[in-house]
TrEMBL record, chain A:
Domain of life: Bacteria
Name of this chain's protein: phenylalanine--tRNA ligase
Protein's organism: candidate division WWE3 bacterium GW2011_GWC2_41_23
Keywords for the protein's UniProt record, in alphabetical order: Aminoacyl-tRNA synthetase, ATP-binding, Ligase, Magnesium, Metal-binding, Nucleotide-binding, Protein biosynthesis
Keyword Transferase set for record: no
Stretches assigned to the B5 domain: 291-363
Annotated GO biological process: phenylalanyl-tRNA aminoacylation
Any one cellular-component term (Gene Ontology): phenylalanine-tRNA ligase complex
Alphabetized GO MF terms: ATP binding; magnesium ion binding; phenylalanine-tRNA ligase activity; RNA binding
Cofactor(s) essential for the protein: Mg(2+)
Keyword GTP-binding among UniProt keywords: no
TrEMBL record, chain B:
Pfam family for this entry, one: Phe_tRNA-synt_N
GO terms assigned for molecular function: ATP binding; metal ion binding; phenylalanine-tRNA ligase activity; tRNA binding
Species name: candidate division WWE3 bacterium GW2011_GWC2_41_23
Aminoacyl-transfer RNA synthetases class-II family profile domain boundaries: 108-335
Catalytic activities: tRNA(Phe) + L-phenylalanine + ATP = L-phenylalanyl-tRNA(Phe) + AMP + diphosphate + H(+)
Name the record gives this protein: phenylalanine--tRNA ligase
EC number: 6.1.1.20
Gene3D superfamilies reported in the protein's UniProt record: Bira Bifunctional Protein, Domain 2
């Protein structure tokens, strides 16, 4: 969450010889990232979710006290506490809290004889610098104090609170409230609300006040209140209502439990001054829990081990003190504003080392032994396949894991909260998307070859889906046998041992596709290549052309040819024209030079065997 | 009739080589291969030869014939293309070569390879962990309880299957940090892991794609400190971005590391001077930190004995930063327009 903090406002708290840019870079390096400096004064600061305390002038000023000296600048705390205002028992609002865990701390005062009017220029200017619109002196004080002290607060028109009674409770499902922005909201169960004596909801706690108790020109009595809410509850409510206000974002990050009363006092004092009013009630401060200080055992060795160098004890102690920690013996007491954030010695180490400066640590490579891991992955093989296909003219594609219902395949898992209908199911096959790509790129070129190597997701009952890596190939403008040849050549390149069955699918529009389980393929690749000794004898190559029928396969024929004689060294497909298949046969005798007489006799046997087994005859010339 | 094949060959070749234009080539052709050419005359009268001699002659003539035809074709090609028009000789050589058709590896593949190469030099072992993951590994074990606001940062996709009583919902992992737990649970120490995997987040705009890649480094050993993280980062940044790129660590907050950092590098566009593409000369590379003791515990590693660091960054992001490729919409990476893919 980004927050705007003027440097000029920070100087109310910290006197320094640093300029705005010095302060910004000190904060960025040691504390919060300053994203931008606006008009040479306003810092736009990114505050991480653990540092709700940093969302205020006070919080950033506290950081400056530690980071400015680290950069060699002076820093002196100059803010003076507002004296506590006097209370009276004239007004007695009745507060009941149904469950203290909802509101660990509830504080309020009533201010009478308020004149609602415009705020002074200085306040309006500061509000405008931090992006807030000035409304009237009462509302402006609540906003001003929120920015300065980090405590969201709210002001009610006291006389619009029925019976001057406030009952803090959880909402029932279906209850309604119209908030200050004029929106009528129907509540789910369990939202923190305040009901007045007339049974009306007057506040959507921690998110936004109710319209029915809003201040107006006639308001003379104001109830000002500052709370600590259960952050989880606020977050859940504000999210489920889709209403993320500045107050809610702060409450859900946690506010300083110990700063509630002093914030209320500061705001009440300021309001009384600006509106001419006076406090007309006692200080109401209801705490559901007792705040206990948190402390951590300091471990200097551990801090050094994390840093990787020795940081002197004195530096550690001084740094922690400058950040508001209190060191008593070996215990470090956590300041209340860091209560939720600091829990273990590692947290203290972060505080110390960030102020020491990460840039002041040396860069070292880790020593020690190297990990020994059995290789159980296919990365090298995947790379080999990708390179091979690339050099054969294929484009590699990457697709989303999710596709539309039409492209997802049978039994695809559904995504509960998809971005859109095109990304609603986890794909079970790569092919549909590849075909879509071929179609989308139909104007690109006559021949297109694409592939993708990625997981698909096959559902498995009671477990994560099985994610096999698939190799999907799709081509257009390519002959069936050429495509098949590419796949076979790929297998050879990958060292696939044995037979792999794969299916080339003829798709509409002349496209061809094939999808192969790459994990299974990888399991049958090996280095186990067989060496056949070279012979000094020459082989003889001959072609024969036979007439084939559709009831046999090429493999059937090759088997017959190969098994006819051990001197048949190689049989390969040369050509097919109509039903005339030309085979190229290589004859080799490893013990002596084979002669044309011998090959002639083997050839005759081949033809005889082909005829007797399949009725295949030599093509007549 | 005796035929001296070798002599005929060499004489014909000599003549052919000196034939510099198409006219003299035609002359040569009729002399050797024409109707009354040398070849024909050789076989014109064979009546007085024995069967064996005829066979011998036939073989020789065939060999000579193919030699002559081949030589002629070659000369014809070179004469018609270059020699015929001598003035264009230079121009011809200036024409582009006829390239074989080569395809394209996707940019993401190229980036993954570059990243893996750098880390293999430091003994990191590359792994890949599930994209579809249990909530436990993606969040819970990483010190992110269900109600924690830190989860807001991850726009998570949920898969519509029943929850597991222990491991929770099934999600598309929004980061590669799930690999930290899975790697540690293998029970082998020390660890130098490089997990490059697919992730998913519910975001789609010019800077985000719902399916993307991250790489996650994890080192766990005795006495691992911030200085080691800095050393590895220095090595990575030097090798990946070049010697002129500097880096810095800034304090940050992640639930699964303590301390946590944001890593910035000097802007590749302005060289660190500051411009509209960067923040005062720096650009964010990604998050890093010392592994939180709770995360070590969830991985079955004793935080009293071991410590570690981790970082996880977007593959596409570091690629864009390194190359200064200003791809105006990152979603082009997954649109598979061949006109886009062919550029890389």
């Amino acid at each position: 969450m980004n927050v705007l903090i003027p440097f000029s406002w920070l100087k109310d708290y910290v006197k320094t010889n640093a300029g705005v840019r010095d302060a910004a870079s000190a904060l960025s390096e040691h504390s919060f990232s300053v994203e931008k400096i606006i008009d040479d004064d306003v810092l736009e600061i990114e505050v991480t979710p653990n540092r709700g305390d940093g969302l205020s002038v006070l919080g950033v000023a506290r950081e400056l006290m530690a980071v400015l000296p680290a950069k060699g600048f002076s820093a002196e705390w100059v803010k003076k506490q507002i004296p506590v205002t006097k209370y009276s028992g004239k007004d007695k609002p009745k507060v009941t809290i149904s469950d203290n865990s909802l509101v660990p701390r509830f504080s309020a005062v009533v201010i009478d004889r308020v004149k609602v009017k415009e705020s002074p220029a200085e306040i309006k200017e500061r509000l405008s610098k931090v992006g807030l619109r000035a409304i009237n002196n009462v509302v402006d004080v609540t906003n001003y104090c929120m920015v300065e002290l980090g405590q969201p607060m709210h002001a009610f028109d006291y006389d619009k609170i029925g019976g001057h009674e406030m009952n803090v409770r959880e909402s029932k499902k279906g209850e309604e409230i119209t908030t200050l922005d004029g929106v009528r909201r129907t509540l789910p169960e369990g939202v923190i609300v305040i009901e007045d004596g007339d049974g009306r909801l007057i506040d959507l706690c921690g998110i936004m006040g109710g319209l029915n108790s809003e201040l107006d020109g006639k308001t003379t009595k104001v109830l000002l209140f500052v709370q600590v809410y259960d952050p989880v509850r606020i977050r859940r409510s504000s999210m489920s209502l889709g209403h993320r206000t500045d107050a809610a974002l702060r409450f859900e990050k946690g506010v300083d439990f110990e700063n509630v009363v002093s914030s209320l006092q500061t705001a009440a004092g300021m309001l009384a001054k600006l509106s001419g009013g006076e406090i007309s009630s006692e200080l109401i401060d209801i705490t559901g829990t007792v705040y206990t200080e948190k402390h951590i055992k300091i471990d200097y060795d551990k801090i050094n081990k994390i840093a990787g160098i020795e940081i002197k004890k004195d530096f550690v102690n001084a740094t922690l003190s400058s950040l508001g920690f209190v060191i008593k013996g070996t215990d470090v007491y956590v300041p209340s504003w860091r209560y939720d954030d600091i829990n273990i010695v590692e947290d203290l180490a972060e505080e110390v080392v960030r102020i020491y400066g990460y840039q002041n640590l040396p860069n070292e490579l880790p020593g020690g032994t190297l990990p020994h891991r059995a290789k159980n992955n296919n990365f090298a093989l995947e790379d080999k396949a990708k390179d091979f296909l690339k050099y054969l003219g294929f484009f590699e594609c990457y697709n989303y894991s999710a596709v539309s219902s039409e492209l997802s395949g049978h039994g695809a898992l559904k995504i509960k909260n998809p971005l859109n209908a095109d990304l609603a199911y986890l794909r079970t096959s790569l092919t549909p998307k590849l075909l879509e790509i071929l179609h989308k790129n139909r104007g690109y070129s006559e021949t297109v070859k694409i592939f993708e190597l990625a997981p698909v997701f096959l559902s498995k009952k009671g477990d994560l889906p099985n994610p096999p890596f698939m190799l999907g190939l799709a081509v257009r403008g390519l002959d069936f046998l050429v495509f098949k040849g590419i796949i076979e050549a790929l297998f050879e390149e990958l060292g696939v041992v044995g037979e792999v069955s794969f299916e080339i699918v003829e798709q509409p529009g002349g496209a061809l596709s094939c999808e192969i389980n790459f994990d299974e393929l990888a399991n049958i690749t090996g280095e186990a290549r067989v060496y056949s000794p070279l012979t000094g004898f020459n082989s003889i190559k001959e072609d024969i052309t036979v007439v084939v029928g559709d009831s046999v396969t090429f493999t059937d024929i090759v088997d017959v040819v190969t098994n006819t004689d051990t001197r048949v060294d190689k049989v390969s497909f040369k050509d097919i024209y109509g039903d005339a298949l030309t085979l190229s046969i290589e004859f080799l005798d490893r013990s002596k030079q084979i002669t044309s007489e011998e090959t002639k006799s083997i050839r005759e046997w081949i033809i005889k065997n082909l005829d007797s087994k399949y009725g295949i005859k030599l093509k007549s010339q | 009739m005796k035929l001296d094949i070798e002599a005929t060959k060499s004489e014909a070749k000599k003549l052919l080589d000196s034939a510099g234009d198409s006219g003299s080539l035609a002359e040569w052709h009729s002399k050797y291969l024409g109707k009354k050419g040398v070849l024909r005359t050789l076989t014109a009268d064979v009546s007085d030869l024995t069967v064996e001699e005829k066979k011998e002659l036939g073989r020789n003539v065939n060999e000579l014939k193919s030699f002559l035809e081949e030589a002629y074709r070659e000369s014809l090609n070179s004469v018609t293309s270059i020699k015929k028009d001598k003035p264009l000789e230079n121009f011809y050589k200036s024409l582009p070569g006829k390239k074989p058709e080569i395809g394209h590896l996707h940019l993401i593949t190229q980036a993954i390879r570059e990243i893996s190469d750098v880390f293999s030099g430091l003994g990191f072992v590359r792994v890949r962990y599930p994209e579809i993951e249990w909530d436990y590994y993606a969040f819970e074990a990483l010190n992110m309880p269900k109600t924690h606001p830190a989860r807001d940062e991850w726009e998570t996709f949920f898969v519509d299957v029943p929850e597991d009583p222990k491991l929770g919902k099934v999600v598309i992992t929004p980061h590669t940090s799930n690999g930290q737990i899975r790697e540690m649970l293998k029970g082998e120490l020390p660890i130098r892991m490089l997990n490059i995997s697919r992730c998913g987040r519910r975001q789609s705009d010019i800077n985000h794609v719902p399916t993307f890649y991250q790489f996650e480094g994890l080192v766990v050993d005795k006495n691992i400190s911030i200085t080691h993280l800095k050393g590895v980062l220095e090595y990575l940044i030097y090798n990946f971005f070049g010697k002129d790129t500097k880096f810095r660590l800034r304090p940050y907050d992640f639930r699964f590391t303590e301390p946590s950092f944001e890593v910035d590098v000097t802007c590749g566009i302005c060289g660190g001077k500051g411009c509209r593409f960067c923040k005062e000369g720096w650009v964010e590379l990604g998050g890093a930190g010392m592994v939180h003791p709770d995360v070590l515990k969830a991985g079955g590693v004793d935080p009293e004995v071991y410590s570690g660091f981790a970082f996880g960054w977007g593959v596409e992001r570091v690629l864009m930063m390194r190359t200064n490729l200003k791809i105006d919409d990152i979603r082009y990476l997954l649109e598979n327009n061949l006109k886009f893919l062919e550029q890389f």
